[in-house]
């Protein structure tokens, strides 16, 4: 068919076992948008964006993500219930089944790459069953120039077959959907799920193994931006803590919103070429840049629209995890290429639903290492009685599901780089204030931004501990004042109006930290262990 689109030489998929020519190569976003509409697989929103439903899965499925255990990975991967082993034989058999399935279908092929720093560039070919999944790849990976395409050297391949269903009885999977990583064959094999996030997180997981092991470079689950003076800031945090929201700031150039490397040439570089933002309750006034990025070319997932195509961002009928992907150039103020100098400040974002961590606090080097390994945030979960309670959630390195190596490996590299670069580390609670979830309220985005800007503008009296109060439970340094933020907001205890309830809850969280950290104690020095909470309940 038209795999010679736009006058490019034709490519063949025979090396993958795909013997037909019924595929479209390197279609433009407009073409993919049109085809999706024509096939009835999506609708155009009034903003011009394409809106699709991803189907059964509206989020990643960590229990169905496997790594092939073979000579490359066997001794290096931290195997367990996060990095679940898969046999090479089962992979080969399942791969052949997926290919047989794709041999019956019209396909979309895209060449793109990861890593803005060309020393680390990874050329990727993405083969998708659906046109809109290919648009996601266009939006999220880096788009090669025509010249770069002529010298394209595919290193990794993503094969995405949402309509294929595995048979767990014979295929070695847990259920019908799967995301498999094979480091020997350099393939990410995805089936049974249309959730696009699996595509980008598959390549992220590959880089999180390859960069530290082969290139001595630190990969990070963080966003990054750069100020007018060239000062880089990075933001680590688990899903929903604010990486995308807070890195997208009109006064600073966006480097990237989710995945970066910190190289040995004193720079931070984006792996990706686009952003993947949550749109639940998105508001034009609070997040104008993200709102404006939702236009033709953007891909909305699982949102509810009226007849006229107006999206109701508050409608979570399909999922809480409504999303949009867009190429980074949909944001006005971006850094080109997506590379910044060594960071001056690192923020650890946490959405503390217990409402006990200070909205901003400064960490010592020990505390930074401790909190990085812990990777705390909180989720809210309903119980049988319909009561909604916060549940602590720890994910090492603020991204355990994507980290194939032992967390200590990444923590060591980060500590070393932080020392060399002399960065300051801040813990930012973007979660609750005035009480736990259900009692208190979410921290105002306006305040969180003001606190971050105060740090970045040097307005928090960085080296002057007279301006800080040491938190009696967590040991972190909490500023007493911050421009643009009411003083009482800075002290979580003061916002509760109930000291006893506050301390009871703070101790509960301190204990959760301690319990979680037990698995890492053997790997942590005395110095790192001292970075944990200072007091616990007994
Ligand atoms: P993921 O890793 O899943 O992409 P993320 O860390 O990028 O997650 P965001 O997409 O930035 O998370 O989500 C943060 C959400 O919380 C947004 O919907 C944002 O509007 C909301 N929010 C509310 N209050 C705050 C706050 N004080 N700081 C940051 N985000 C806030
Ligand atoms: Mn994000």
TrEMBL record:
HAMAP family tied to this protein: PEPCK_ATP
PANTHER family, A to Z: PHOSPHOENOLPYRUVATE CARBOXYKINASE (ATP), PHOSPHOENOLPYRUVATE CARBOXYKINASE ATP
Full protein name: Phosphoenolpyruvate carboxykinase (ATP)
Enzyme type, top EC level: lyase
Sequence positions that bind Mn(2+): 201, 221, 258
Keyword annotations: ATP-binding, Cytoplasm, Decarboxylase, Gluconeogenesis, Kinase, Lyase, Manganese, Metal-binding, Nucleotide-binding, Pyruvate, Transferase
Gene Ontology biological process terms, A to Z: gluconeogenesis
Similarity comment text for this entry: Belongs to the phosphoenolpyruvate carboxykinase (ATP) family.
Binding site for substrate: 60, 195, 201, 323
């Amino acid at each position: 068919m038209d795999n010679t689109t736009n006058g490019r030489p034709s490519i063949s998929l025979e090396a993958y076992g795909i013997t037909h020519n019924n595929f479209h190569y390197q279609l433009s976003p407009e073409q993919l948008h049109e085809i999706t509409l024509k096939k009835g697989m999506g609708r155009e929103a009034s903003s011009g964006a394409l809106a699709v439903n991803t189907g059964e899965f509206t989020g990643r499925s960590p229990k169905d993500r496997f790594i092939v255990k073979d000579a490359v990975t066997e001794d290096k991967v931290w195997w367990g219930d996060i990095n679940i082993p898969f046999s090479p034989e089962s992979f080969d058999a399942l791969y052949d089944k997926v290919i047989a399935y794709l041999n019956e279908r019209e396909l979309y092929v895209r060449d793109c790459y990861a890593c803005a720093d060309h020393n680390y560039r990874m050329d990727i070919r993405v083969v998708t069953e659906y046109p809109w999944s290919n648009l996601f790849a266009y939006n999220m990976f880096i788009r090669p120039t025509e010249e770069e395409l002529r010298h394209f050297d595919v290193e990794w391949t993503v094969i995405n077959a949402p309509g294929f269903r595995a048979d767990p009885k014979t295929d070695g999977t847990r259920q019908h959907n799967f995301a498999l990583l094979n480091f020997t064959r350099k393939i990410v094999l995805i089936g049974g799920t249309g959730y696009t996030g699996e595509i980008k997180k598959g390549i992220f997981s590959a880089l999180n193994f390859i960069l530290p092991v082969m290139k001595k470079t630190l990969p990070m689950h963080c966003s990054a931006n750069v100020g007018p003076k060239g000062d880089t800031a990075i933001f680590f945090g688990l899903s929903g803590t604010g990486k995308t929201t807070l890195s997208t700031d009109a006064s600073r150039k966006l480097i990237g919103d989710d995945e970066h490397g910190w190289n040995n040439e004193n720079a931070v570089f984006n792996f990706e070429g686009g952003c993947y933002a949550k749109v639940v309750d998105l508001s034009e006034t609070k997040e104008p840049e993200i709102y404006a990025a939702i236009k033709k070319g953007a891909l909305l997932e699982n949102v509810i629209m009226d007849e006229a195509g107006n999206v109701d961002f508050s409608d979570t009928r399909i999922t809480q995890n409504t999303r949009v992907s867009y190429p980074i150039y949909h944001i006005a103020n971006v850094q080109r290429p997506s590379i910044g100098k060594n960071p001056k400040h690192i923020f650890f974002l946490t959405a503390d639903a217990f409402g006990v961590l200070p909205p901003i606090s400064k960490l010592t080097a020990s505390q930074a290492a401790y909190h990085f390994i812990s990777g705390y945030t909180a989720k809210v979960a309903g119980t049988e009685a319909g009561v909604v309670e916060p549940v602590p959630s720890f994910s090492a390195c603020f991204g355990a599901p994507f980290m194939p190596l032992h967390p200590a490996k990444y923590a060591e590299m980060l500590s070393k780089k932080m020392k060399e670069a002399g960065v300051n580390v801040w813990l930012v609670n973007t979660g609750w204030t005035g009480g736990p979830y259900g009692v208190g309220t979410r921290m105002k985005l306006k305040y969180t931004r003001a606190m971050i800007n105060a740090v970045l503008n040097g307005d928090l009296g960085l080296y002057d501990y007279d301006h800080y109060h040491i938190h009696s439970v967590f040991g972190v340094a909490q500023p007493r004042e911050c421009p643009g933020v009411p003083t009482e907001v800075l002290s979580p205890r003061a916002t509760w109006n109930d000291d006893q309830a506050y301390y009871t809850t703070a101790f509960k969280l301190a204990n959760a930290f301690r319990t979680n950290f037990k698995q890492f104690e053997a790997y942590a020095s005395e110095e790192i262990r001292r970075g944990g909470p200072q007091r616990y309940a007994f």
